[in-house]
Specification:
This protein is mainly beta and 127 residues long. It has one domain: Beta Barrel (Elongation Factor Tu (Ef-tu), domain 3), CATH 2.40.30.10. It contains 1 helix and 10 strands; from the N terminus they run ββββββββαββ.
Length: 127
């Protein structure tokens, strides 16, 4: 996989299965900082931009945010969440997360927030 490569955001028949889950502290940019005008809730599907130590960026889709302890995160606010990735990109995400603890959350090419990785959860074969 090369720098700047995008991994897709599709699902099969609308069903979503998850592989690796990253536990993150997220911060959404405020509207005045160029962020969203509305809050994010569980089910939000951003693009995740990982930047390696040598500054190569890789954007990965096929993920979904699940908020922890709150129902929404307003623009300009922070919270804890789980970024759950599809099995097809789990190995790539695992490798990218080892080299970068900061993820930019994007909508298209527009940065709307960031996530700091504080842990990971391996896929549960029982799910």
């Amino acid at each position: 996989m090369g720098p700047g490569q995008h991994l897709g955001r599709t699902s099969v028949n609308g069903a979503i299965s998850f592989g690796i889950t990253l536990v993150v502290d997220l911060h959404m940019l405020g509207r005045a900082e160029g962020g969203r005008a509305t809050p994010v809730t569980s089910g939000y599907r951003p693009l995740c931009r990982f930047t390696s130590p040598d500054r190569e960026a890789t954007v990965v889709g096929m993920c979904q945010l699940e908020l922890v302890d709150v129902s929404e995160v307003e623009p300009g606010q922070s919270g804890r969440g789980l970024l759950r990735f599809a099995p097809a990109v789990s190995q790539t995400v695992r490798e990218l997360a080892e080299g970068s603890s900061e993820i930019l959350l994007e909508e298209g090419t527009h940065v709307v927030g960031s996530a700091h990785v504080i842990g990971s959860i391996a896929p549960d074969s029982a799910l």
